[in-house]
Amino acid sequence: MFKKSKIATSIKLAGALSFAAAASISAPVFAQEDAQVDEKSVEKVQVVGSRIRKVDFVSNAPVATVGIEQFELTNSVNTEALLNTLPQTIPGLDRSSNNPGGGIATVDLRGLGTNRTLVLIDGIRAVPSTSGGTVDINTIPAALIENVEVLTGGASAVYGSDAVAGVVNFSLKKNFEGVDFNTSFETTEEGDAEIWNGSLTLGGNFADDRGNVVVSMQYTERSALFADSRAISSIALDDATDENGNLFLEPFGSSGVPGTSIFTAGLPESFNSGAIFNQDGTIRPFVQGGATNDFYNFAPVNYLQLPQQRHNITAMGHFEVSDTAELYMRGSFANSDVPQQLAATPIFQTSTFTLDGNPFIDPSAQQILSDAVGGDVDTDGDGIADEGTAFLRRRLLEVGPRIVEDDNTMFSMLGGLRGSFGDSAWTYDAYFQTGRVNQNSIQLGNVNRGRFDQALLLATDDNGDVILDANGNPSCADSGANGSIVGCAPMNLFGEGNISADAADFLRTRVNSTSEYEQKLYGFNISGDTMDFFELPGGPVGLAFGFERREESFSFDPSQDLAAGTIAGFNGSAPVSGEFDVNEYFIEAYVPLVEGLEFAELIDLELAYRYADWSTVGGVDAFKVAGSWTINDVVRVRSSFNRAVRAPNIGELFSPQNEGFPSAEDPCSSQASDQSAAVSAICTATGVPAGAVFTPTLDAVSGQTRQVSGGNPNLQEESADTMSLGLVITPMDDLNVSIDYFDIEIEDAVFGFGGGTNNVLQTCYDPENELGGVGSAFCDVVNRRPDGSIDFVEILSQNVGSIKLTGFDVVADYAAEVAGGNMRVNYLATYTTESSFQSFAGSDIVDCAGTFGNTCGEPTPEYVHRMTVSWGMDDFDAQLLWRFIGATEDDDAAEVYFQEDTGSFSYFDLSGTYHLGENYRLNAGIRNLFDREAPRFGGNAEQSNTYPATYDVFGRTYFVGFTASF
Questions:
Q1: Is residue 933 very low, low, confident or very high in pLDDT (cuts 50, 70, 90)?
Q2: Can you say whether residue 596 is alpha, beta or left, with left for phi > 0 and alpha for psi between -120 and 50 degrees?
Q3: Rounded to the nearest 5°, which phi and psi values hold at 431?
Q4: pLDDT tens digit string along 316-336?
Q5: Contact, 468 vs 359, CB < 8 A?
Q6: Which of 54, 503, 904, 943 is least enclosed by beta carbons within 10 angstroms?
């Protein structure tokens, strides 16, 4: 790049304070020659968290840098796999995220949400993939990553909205020359869950080294692994109590069974409110507990590892058109195909079906059903109603599994001009970026609800008798196709395997959707210092100022059945369309107050201010005040305060009502922990028949309750105050230690009403909570069916929440000569003292630090660390990685589960690299060296009976890689 001049006076602390800038997570470089700093050749660099270029590379906020060596030593083909091991992150979506999922990979700093984590590529926003503004990490060109910088704490004054929890900046390779080929393969000890990756990078200089072009191509293929491949996930589990009152995990599943079940208080007492059909059309009691029960085990056909095919192509280049100007560009294309698979559709629907004379139902069962759910019409007067109406629960195996095929394609183009103003210290950078992410989704295994009802009603004559053909087969009362490609075929729902192929064809509906996220970004900034004008006692003042304009739009276009929600299988999704634009103005200053004094080697300040004018929420402000006091070469104190903002995203603003199924149990069901008369009174007053209270009729299907949620165009911005205070100690040349306290408080946080479905239900049916009870806002959003079971809970977005997060980050780095080689120990840890939220004013404050469960979600240990011990000599490097995950407790004090405490977990990975001459190197390793198994959960699991993004469900894994560089 073009040379910088007039920087000699800025070299004050180069090298001595390098550790203060960032916690470096990389393998040591063991063969470096000593060199003195040449003042004329030193180039100013820009680090994440500031646009001001400085020689000393010192940051006043904690920054963790993950070097490219870590990607190779851990065989992290998918970037999120490595990022999720950092103490500053809570695992987001990854290769195990089948349901919930979406075919994307995400990063979540501090557990504050992916929508509060800003993702950058070389300091510029990456193109989002979802209506929530989340970036799919699969679109990052992994083969070109030089390092990843993770800045925790608010950075909105520098980068704009969304940088509330912090920033993840992917820094790509610059000035690459040569050819680099890499291939790797990994597989578990069971010989499955394979991942193969190959990449080719070519680059070179041209025009007397004034320009450089690099092209990188990567292909990744990940094999599918089904849940039945591991003991932990092969059978759905639930909590149960034995005769001695001891909790244990028993086989469980869904009441949507292949034989059809009906739960109603009107059944004979011996049925305990639950019935299931035998294959011959007879009916018997539904076995609701024990090692052998009637619940359907939906687990085996779910993915434990999502298959993936991914292609990435990126081209980058720059060219010096003069000594003071350089053109640069980057073009990227990424395609990721990630299918998801769930068990066959479970339909839960109140339907009317032909009862009297139905050849599919045994006469004895007809009588039982007539007494329980029969209608008022009995044409032939035989004591059996012509029709019955019940809430039917059926697993439609005959239709096949539910499969969604997500194909995500990203294209982005960046171009710009940067340079310096003559021979001064002032530089400029003007750029334009445009990008688009398209997702095409095809869903298989859905059924049309209307056609389901249609196929249950049989043709009858004037006497009410079912009309049969010569072979004794009935026909539909309405034989029309009703949108299907075939006419109606009568459906024998009453017994496993009884639905004919014709009826299954009539039910099926193939749905699809397309979505598009488009971003346009314009930016211009100028930076430099006051060396030519004035200097403070500590040196010249560094300045940066500029302008950015961003235009973003999102559209989601579903097919008719998906949009109308007339399907059973996957969730209905209405169309979404929205856009916004924002103009932002920013200024930064680096102020070195004093330098070179006793007990004050350097005292400096960093100041930043940004004003943003949004088309949606109007004008918002963000600012930063940070500073450091370098007492001497050993001790440095640093602190920062940021006012960060997050404007509501397109999904939060414009989404129509959509459905989801979060974990939540009905407080009126047989699973209720409080079955008092006070709770029963609320249940009956809110629509539950007296005979159904605390019975299995109301049990949530698979522990999930239907939630209807949607956007709110009146949302305003969230505001956050983030503070950090740290101490950096360098007692010797080879030992560095830092500890930073962080405090993040978010006000006006966007929450679903009442903090989500689980919290709404608990508040509504808590007799001691003055916010709940009959007629309260919480009970008003709970909608029940005629039999008393919950149809849905309505949750809309509002600026009503608050979030608070406090804790400590600790980093230590030590290097020494050991056994004839060079050893380096790197330690990163986070101790979280509080991670609380309040879903609305007046509600209870829920502290998720050290907890997991249906309210807090993914485990949030109070203490977690990542520690590596590296050793190298000559052509060989080795690393032992120790990941420690602290113990967590279930977040529901009212409910007792089998797994109330996870205990602490340690995972060890061993890897090494061997250099075969100058051009080749071989790396290999073992992940989860001691084959530590994940903890098992029942009703408080996320998926696969555990939390697979936190705990390893694959077991000991081996990998090998080969790289050729020329």
A1: very high
A2: left
A3: -150, 160
A4: 999 999 999 999 999 999 999
A5: yes
A6: 904
